Amino acid sequence: MPIDKIVPDVAAAVAGVKDGDTIMISGFGFAGVPNDLIHGVLDSGAKDLTVISNNAGTGTEGLAALIGSGRVTRIICSYPRSKGSDLFDARYAAGEIDLELVPQGTLSERMRAAGAGVAGFYTPTGVGTDLAEGKEVRNFDGRDYVLELPLRADLALVQAYKADRWGNLIYRKAARNFGPVMAMAADLTVVQVREIVPLGEMDPEAIVTPSIFVDRVVHIDNDREWDI
Amino acid sequence: MSSAVSSAGTATESGAGFTKLTRLQIARRAAEMIPDGSFVNLGIGIPTLAANVMPEGKEIVLHSENGILGVGPGPAEADRDRDLINASKEYVTLRPGGSFFVHSDAFAMIRGGHLDLALLGAFQVAGNGDLANWTTGDRRFPPGVGGAMDLAAGAKGIWVLTDHVTKKGEPKIVNACSLPLTAPGVVKRIFTDIAVIDVTEGGLVVREMVPGLTLEQLQTMTEPPLTLAEDWRELVVA
């Protein structure tokens, strides 16, 4: 049986998402955000979601729309407030969404740890600050480090540039950002790509996310401008 | 009397006899002092502007925490690429020799101690080098730590670029930060719109002041005691 992870549409790509799920969403600013997949989750009706993403959405579409819908009860991110993050800001001010603020490097390393089977790690980032409160601090070679635990998700939504039917991925420029670590850290990794290429066409030396980390691929043809 | 215009474009310190630098001039002065060959991260705010005014003749490699080494200046509007933005979510270019990588590698560079220098913004800096730049504690303005704590803990050197006082005229260089810390004791040098100040074990040392500013005036806008470097110079930027 040939392996074929390509699914026909967004609904098939996000099939199985359910209430209470934890969802990783790739992207940094407007680069690399899987907007079509996010709207797929929105259309699915799933609620009580926890979102893990660097930002909390801007404008009126994509992550901002998901948060604005009231379906996200908790967000784990490093930088929620940006120009245009009004939908998040309002829910946060009203106490309608829980925020776990995580330093950006700790955020990506916690995902990497989850994907790599690492149970936890000590980092100097955040030592002596409010974000290390309640966490174990240990001294190694005269320097304090704080214990950080892995971060997993039920579902990762990732945007990449090209994929093949096995799910090998390459990304484009700074749109790579969190994609590769999120793909490793979720039970189900779903990727939207601008191009699907035949198996064997990608340079094996250049593949960034190997197929083993990917479960579903959907080709999104209309590369439209989003209000994000 | 000089016209004394602040970065916000409003007249300040009227009659004080000195002119504040613009945000771009603060960035330019810091950029001039970056050692040749350095790998440097530019934080959100004034530091980001430095990418557009890097000194000619030096090869300095700019790192952006969203996965870029070799960040170049902003492109012409027609050349914008929505997959190529910096940590401030602004369009940038890539220099020859530049590379892209995953976020966890971007932070391995930071947390692994590979970066020579990070230029960061600040809400407050204390005389001992404590930095506060991620939250005001006001729920109307959600906090945003981004990569600041990683950079503060991981880069070999931290320079802060900031206005010298708040919009209300309160000192941003303080005896002790009243806002939550980003990291304790990390700031090595402070570039403001009126001075360049080194954080040393012996206290704050003024290296440069804008023309017309006196140490006494600067002290009234700065909480910790200042000493003037013997070889201090006027802070003049193109």
From TrEMBL, chain A:
The keyword Transferase applies. InterPro entries: 3-oxoacid_CoA-transf_A, CoA_trans_fam_I, NagB/RpiA_transferase-like. SMART domains: CoA_trans. The keyword Transferase applies. Signal peptide: none annotated. GO terms for molecular function: CoA-transferase activity. SUPFAM superfamilies: NagB/RpiA/CoA transferase-like. This is 3-oxoadipate CoA-transferase, alpha subunit.
UniProtKB/TrEMBL annotation, chain B:
InterPro entries: 3-oxoacid_CoA-transf_B (IPR012791), CoA_trans_fam_I (IPR004165), CoA_transf_AS (IPR004164), NagB/RpiA_transferase-like (IPR037171). Transmembrane segments: none annotated. Pfam families: CoA_trans. Keywords: Transferase. The keyword Amino-acid biosynthesis does not apply. GO terms for molecular function: CoA-transferase activity. Belongs to the 3-oxoacid CoA-transferase subunit B family. This is 3-oxoadipate CoA-transferase beta subunit. The lineage of its organism: Bacteria, Pseudomonadati, Pseudomonadota, Alphaproteobacteria, Rhodospirillales.
